[in-house]
Amino acid sequence: ADSDSRTPVSTALWTGVYLADILKYVRPIRGQAKHVIFEGADTLPNGPYGTSERLSWAANREKGMLIGTS
Fold first, then answer.
1. 5: Cβ–Cβ under 8 A, 6 or more apart, which residues?
2. pLDDT tens, 48-68?
């Protein structure tokens, strides 16, 4: 990337469990469940950080979504 690039880059090495493996274990009801919702434990002025991802994306191990550990 050139020096004017605005794309973030990370060289961190993460460990954890694939979200797809967890979803395979808990077996959400397809057709009813559409998204996976995440909420952070940190306290922010307007409440905890939260986001969501489509279930179809989160359940695909090739997407590489991890539940990271530290």
1. none
2. 889 999 999 999 999 989 988
